Amino acid sequence: MDPDISDEMIDHLVDFFDRIAPSYDSWAGGQHERVAARLVDVAAPQKGEHVLDVGTGTGLVAHLVAPRVTPGSVIGIDLSDNMLAIARSKRSKNVQFLGMAAERLVFKPETFDLVTMGEALAYLGDPTDALAEAQRVLRTGGRLAVSNQRRSLSTRAQDLFFQGLAPLARRHYLSLPRYSSERARFGEPNVLPQLLDGAGFEVTRVTEMVTGGRTRDAKEWTDLMAGAGPLPNTLIRALGPRYRDELEAEIESAMESLGDPDDAFRYHHSYLIAVGRKR
After folding, report:
1. Are strands 201-214 and 138-149 parallel, antiparallel or unpaired?
2. Does pTM top 0.85 for this prediction?
3. Spatial strand order in the sheet of 266-278
4. Is residue 1 pLDDT above 80, yes or no?
5. Which among 153, 168, 221, 274 is least buried, having the fewest CB atoms inside 10 angstroms?
6. What is the pLDDT of residue 175?
7. Domain-by-domain residue ranges, the chain?
8. Is the pLDDT of residue 176 over 70?
9. Is 259 helix (H, G, I), strand (E, B) or coil?
C-alpha cells in the first residue's frame, strides 16, 4: 500500500461511492454509461474470454462485456457494498460480483484474458500495486483496458468551481483526506500510457472521448458537482440550507465573471482510454 494512503482515505472513498450508488448510472445524463460503453468497444472482448472488471461499481462495464464473451465469464470486484448491490440486481447469467481490493486479488496467475478498469485507476488505494496485480492475473498476451478522466480539458466554469473548494473547506473548518495532486494527471496522454508501460504492458491503442453539457443555474450546477468526487460531495453535503444558498450565490457570481454567457455552467468530462497487451 502506498504509504501516503491511509485507511481513512479508503474509508472516505468507499463512503462516497456508497452514498452516490443510487444515482451513479443516471448522473450527468448517463455519462458513466457512455464511458463504459466506449471502454468496452475499445477493449473488444471476444467470445469465450474470461474477464475481470476492477472497480466495477454498479457493474456498467461488466454487464456490457457479459453478452460479448458468452460462454466465457466476467467477475466484477469493488469495495462499495452499495455499488455491488446495484450491480448484482441487474443480473447477467455469466457475471459474478465480489467485494475485493484491486491490490489484493485472490486469483491465480494467468486466469484472465482481459482486465478492465473503468474510471477506477485514480481512486484505487495503490494504483501501482493494482496494475501489477492485473498483470499477474492476465495470461500472456492478455489485455488491460483503462479509462481515466482527463482533467486538463475541464471548462473554465469547472476550473473556477474546483479552485474554490479548498477555501470553502477552510471556511467551514473541514479537514478532509485527499490524494496527491499527481493523480489528477493520470488521464493525460503522456501519463496513462507510461503507467501501463511501466507495469509490463505494450500499449496498443489510445483514444479519447468527451462528454459534457450545461446546467441551467447554480442549484443544478451544485447538484451535479456533488457527484463529481469525494471532496465536492462531502463539502456540499456538510453545508446547511443557509450556507448552501451562499455557495450558490457565489457560484452565480463566479459564472458571471467569465464574461461569455456561453461559458457559464458549462462542463466537460473528458476521458483517455488505453489498451495494453501483457508482454
Report:
1. unpaired
2. yes
3. 95-99, 73-78, 50-54, 112-118, 138-149, 266-278, 201-214
4. no
5. 153
6. 66
7. 7-154+179-215+268-278
8. no
9. coil
278 within 8 A of 141, measured Cβ to Cβ:
yes
Assigned fold of 7-154+179-215+268-278:
Rossmann fold (3.40.50)
Q: How far is Cα 15 from Cα 23, in angstroms, rounded to an integer?
A: 14
Q: Which three cell numbers stand for residue 32?
A: 458513466
- In this predicted structure, what is the pLDDT of residue 116? 98
**Which residues lie closer than 8 Å to 70 by C-beta, 6 or more apart?**
47, 94
Phi-psi region of 91 (alpha: psi -120 to 50; beta: other; left: phi over 0): left
- Cα distance between residue 64 and residue 94, in whole Å: 11
Q: Are 130 and 109 in contact (CB under 8 A)?
A: no
Asked if omega into 71 is within 30° of 0 (cis), the reply is: yes
Distance CA 68, CA 17 (A): 27
117-121, 141-145, 162-166, 245-249, range with the lowest pLDDT? 162-166
- From the number of C-beta atoms within 10 Å of its C-beta (0-12, 13-18, 19+), residue 212 rates as middle
Nearest residue to 278 (alpha-carbon basis) of 65, 146, 134? 134
Which segments of the chain does DSSP mark as H helices, in order? 7-24, 27-43, 60-69, 81-90, 127-137, 156-163, 165-171, 192-198, 218-225, 230-238, 241-256
